[in-house]
Design a protein that fits this description.
Layout: E1 2-6, H1 15-28, E2 33-37, H2 43-46, H3 57-62, E3 72-73, E4 79-82, H4 91-94, H5 101-108, E5 114-118, H6 125-133, E6 136-142, H7 151-164, E7 170-177, H8 184-197, H9 210-214, H10 222-225, H11 230-246
Parallel strand pairs: 1-5, 1-6, 2-4, 2-5, 6-7
Antiparallel strand pairs: 3-4
Helix pairs in contact: 1-11, 5-6
Length: about 250
């Protein structure tokens, strides 16, 4: 079982969209996938049709042995979800000194090929739990002016976690999101990111796409909502790239 964290402390970069659609395409490729919603906002949960869930990841973190009780099947064959609940908002305080709480939960939930974790947009205790549990990280990066701001801080945090908590942690890749090929700015940002991170950047680029924005309101991944859209094609290619890299871990 490989554990992938979708991480960026900056909000609004397509992190949850990537978590949902990447998980769905990985499942469509024949893998048994568990998506863990670690964000108290619960957007990954609602984006897959699970709204108003009263029990989920928070209860599993308190009692890892009971974790399987909170896993929900989704409409996507091969994809399961451990949903977020509003209780997670206060879990950061409770988990401040429990760095391996999520790892304990995932140890109980064996039997999946892949676990994808949608981390919160911060570098607090919940995200540190994701870094401590993950085998590898995918960093969604919006192709806009401030894209690289804060990324240095994230990579520094990853290095500190690697040294102190999780020696095997690696960055699987950087995924460029919200790309608008009509603008010079987006192209310049892509060039700068590829120049700085080299082969770490996935070749698949996620475009700005109306269908991607609409899909969550219909509680469907893009492959089920608009399979012929540019957003669907991009996430399908990204899933293929991700699997190629995961197989080398």
């Amino acid at each position: 079982m490989k554990i992938l964290g979708i991480v960026n402390q900056k909000g609004g970069v397509g992190k949850t969209t990537t978590a949902i659609n990447l998980s769905a395409y990985l499942a469509a490729g024949g893998r048994k996938v568990l998506l863990v919603d670690m964000d108290a906002q619960g957007n990954a949960s609602s984006g897959l049709g699970l709204r108003g869930v009263e029990e989920g990841l928070y209860q599993a973190l308190l009692d890892p042995a009971s974790a399987a009780n909170y896993v929900q099947e989704t409409s996507q064959p091969g994809l399961w979800l451990l949903p977020a609940t509003p209780d997670l908002a206060g879990a950061g305080v409770e988990l401040a000194d429990q760095t391996y709480a999520l790892k304990a939960v995932l140890k109980v939930l064996s039997g999946y090929d892949l676990v994808v974790i949608d981390a919160p947009p911060s570098l607090g205790p919940l995200t540190i739990n994701v870094l401590a549990a993950a085998d590898a990280l995918i960093i969604p990066l919006q192709t806009e002016y401030y894209a690289l701001e804060g990324l240095a801080g994230l990579t520094d945090t990853v290095e500190r976690v690697r040294q102190a908590l999780n020696p095997g942690l690696r960055i699987l890749g950087v995924a460029l999101t919200m790309f608008d090929g009509r603008t010079n700015l987006a192209q310049e940002v892509e060039q700068n990111v590829r120049g700085h991170f080299g082969e770490l950047v996935f070749w698949s680029v996620i475009p700005r796409n109306v269908r991607l924005s609409e899909a969550p309101s219909f509680a469907k991944p893009i492959g089920a909502f608009a399979p012929m859209s540019a957003g669907a094609a991009a996430y399908k290619r990204l899933a293929e790239e991700v699997m190629q890299r995961v197989e080398k871990i």
